[in-house]
Amino acid sequence: MKEQALLGDEAAALGAIHAGLSAAYGYPGTPSTEIMEYLIENAQGSALAPGAFLASWCVNEKTALEAALGVSFAGKRAMVTMKHVGLNVASDPFMNGALLGIKGGLVIAVADDPGMHSSQNEQDSRFYASFAMVPCLEPRNQQEAYTMTREAFDLSEKFQVPVLLRMTTRLSHARAQIKTEPERARNPLSKAGDKTQWMLLPAYARRNYISLIEKQRGLLEWSVVHPSNKLELEGRDLSLAVITSGLGGNYYEENLEDLVKSRGGKTPARLHIGAYPLPEASILRLCEKADRVIVIEEGQPVIEERLRGILTHSITVNGKLDGTVSRTGELDPDVVRLGLALPPRPGVLNSGTVSLPKLPGRPPQLCTGCPHGDSYETIKKVIQELDPAEGHPNTAINSDIGCYALGATPPYSVPESIVCMGASVGMARGAAEAGIKYAIGVIGDSTFLHSGIPPLIDAIIADTPMTLIILDNSIVAMTGCQQTMIGSDKFTPLILGLGIKSEHLVELEAKRQLLEENAVKLKKEIEYPGLSVVIFKRECLEAFRKRRKAETQGGSK
Ligand code: SF4
Questions:
Q1: What is the set of domains in the chain, with CATH numbers?
Q2: TM segments (predicted)?
Q3: Ligand 1 binding site (Cβ under 6 Å of any ligand atom)
Q4: How many C-beta atoms lie closer than 10 Å to residue 505's C-beta?
Q5: Which pLDDT score, from 0 to 100, does residue 554 have?
Q6: Among candidate residues 446, 474, 444, the one with its CA nearest the CA of residue 544
Q7: Which residue is closest in CA terms to ligand 1's atom 5?
């Protein structure tokens, strides 16, 4: 066995490589991005060469998962990476993929972000696994991220279903030493024999759905004996039973010594859950004699809610639903400590937060000199001229997900809505059709490719009187400067091809010195009572720095 110090994301990526990965696809999204970055760094560029694998970014999570399904159909192992909200985008192939006869192992690595460090919501991907009726593995440390990823491929091939690997921010972005095992051979090309398992025509889909339900019994048996679903019952105090999952297990253990002391030396009975479907038999064994059970889980109350359908008798259940454990945000040892009714550690407030001297708030901001800042200054000036009344009642500026979302904070304060990838375009259309005179969507280049094109087609067909502003900085900046799928030079022919009139497709250079000139051109398009697209172009400063560094180092990364 070799040892390496890796981030949780990198450990999952290496686990996939060592499991015999042939291809990996994904869309960048914090905290999942480093899984694919590690794979791309180590890929040999082709799934066809012996011993090689391919790794690439895709336009969005849905296309990534669909490509991975194609790899699995051909009999090879594939991984897909995304953040939790990306699974919403990929949910169509994800839910339907559960009904297929998966051939080569298919693992979907999804990184959740409890606490919303860089996300628009706190959703828990374990709900999706349960919804699709596919197994989920939930590592609690970097070593498990490695070993569970390897195992996920075997499980996928054994039960012929996709397997979800649930990561979380703290695990994804923390580094630890892991032990690795020898790399396995990649699957040979051997496409799925039974085509009816891959065609979800109603007659086949009905049969495949029954087959998926029949697989649940085997999955339950697998999860009950899975080593990460560890039941500690013998000699334990049953006046309190504790169920933990994911990092909640680590935080519980950090408090265990104090908990045992506070209970006169008695150690509560415990079940840690790392593999789903929920090990129902173990839960019943734990709870049948216990007086009370407390559930400590990272994310939403997935286990706690399901307990009510599993338990055959009445028992007090404490956790996120009754507020014993904080319902929102990330868990940490202090939050868990409060849930266990232990006194706060010295220097820690009752809320579980550390008391620090008051520091000035520092909300995230666009980099000084960012091209988006100049674009927003122009938009702001034009709106002030067109719709000067307070609150701009005749204007709706819908922004999207990316660095440019930071234009919502001072000193710009321009966007009025930020919802999900691509929503700015559809919302601008809706606002226009609701009667808003100056309906505007603001979207970045990569987000436009991700999910901005279909709603633009809707608006073109409806000839909606709105203006779409594309902020083209030639890179996916927010997640660390991944390459945009197609270059800026192709945007104009692409948009013209969709049907925008050439006289209402305007390109501007996002520069402060051009503010007056750009404002005149932008104003004309916003006033135009039809559909117009304005592209503000200038390279992201971070991307520029990275590119210059690579050039001066002779093109090396
Ligand atoms: S990383 Fe690039 S796009 Fe993002 S704020 Fe900085 S300069 Fe602007």
A1: 2-214 (3.40.50.970), 229-309 (3.40.50), 371-544 (3.40.50.970)
A2: none
A3: 366-367, 370, 372, 403, 473, 477, 540-542
A4: 20
A5: 66
A6: 474
A7: 366
